[in-house]
Amino acid sequence: MLVSITPASAHPSFRLRGKLRVPGDKSISHRALILGMLAKGQTRITGLLESEDVLHTLAAMRALGAIIERGEETYSWTVTGIGNGPAKTPGAPLDFGNSGTGARLCMGLVAGLGVSASFIGDQSLSGRPMNRVLKPLQALGVSVDSQDGCLPVTIHGGGPVPARKTQTNIASAQIKSALLLAALRSDGITEVIEPALSRDHSERMLRAFGAEVKSESLPDGRHRVRLSGPANLTGTPVAVPGDPSSAAFPIAAALCIPDSDITLEGVLMNPTRTGFIKVAQAMGGQIDILNKRASGGEDIADLRVRGSRLHGTTTSADIVPSMVDEFPALAVLAAFAEGTTKMQGLGELRVKESDRIARSEDMLRGMGVSVQSGEDWMCVEGTGAVWGETGQAAPVPVRTDGDHRIAMAALVLGLAAFRRIEVSEPESIATSYPAFFEDMRSLGARFQIQKEGAPC
For residue 162, is the peptide bond before it cis, meaning its omega torsion is within 30 degrees of 0? Predict the structure, then answer.
């Protein structure tokens, strides 16, 4: 686990080689804990991502009444759920740290359980919008107090949430999942219609736990999910596959560093999560999808990634839901590609852990890359290599605003460029990828961390 090691710098590295397994998928880890808490009996989770975000959700599930114990095997946990029984009223606010996913999903969960609970987070999370979840819940009669749609938030317990039809304005797995969780104890059919299919981990996992959930694409391109309630969930084993959002960073590094050849094992290949891989392949990236298989209702595979000559591309808003967290990594690919890469429909990136459009733009511009942006787009002019300013020996500082994905993107950029990059607050990486430095070093990456001294 990474703890207070500010700052860290990346040094130009020469060919990455080897195999690794990226950490468990964050989205699935959150949901496994939540559904395990709701289920009757025990849920054994293997491969759980033990990051700060997920551990905040784990603590919240304990506060609501689940018994959660660490198993003997690494990354294994057992959750004994409350079944159809009453949830506990938390004795203190539920602290979600920097986790927007955990906070928003659990707002729906708490609303459906009928208990009262307050939600808090760190400074970053406290400035991020919660109304996208709170307003649909309020439309269902849930009583909510908030700070102008931000944390702290209090959900006031009441009667059952009615089963109704809700149409969302954006394709968001967090909104959809919060509404489904709120309706699990409701009588009747709950229907959620979104403008396009977002991540469907909740629907898949709910089916695995015994809920009746139907999903379908509508003729006009929208997507509909129907949940029959009340749902009686039964504990089930969950094997968490590797997180494709975390995999994006070693993938980007290997593609951009010549003569690299790495294999990432057991990566989630759910079609709602593979946008980055598809775009990287379209840019000329050599990514071979090997040993395809299924586990727990999800598709997984091994990925062989080799150093590649990349070319620019254009991405549309349609692909954003399937790679919303990977655009900082795509910005790195764009810098090393030949030609123009234009990314569109990125408005959601403005309200992530940081303004990811602004931070990506500053990161690239600091290394001499030509980049422009607008409210919901970014355009990068790549030249096939990133040199940084000539005649400058000091590392280029990159502002991260405590955003784990900006920190990883900047460090990957520094590995493949001809000038060092230094990031502030690298400890934020533990939010999603606690073993990032260890894993990347095992492939041949060179980092210097202040407390460690020489680069290695």
Answer: no
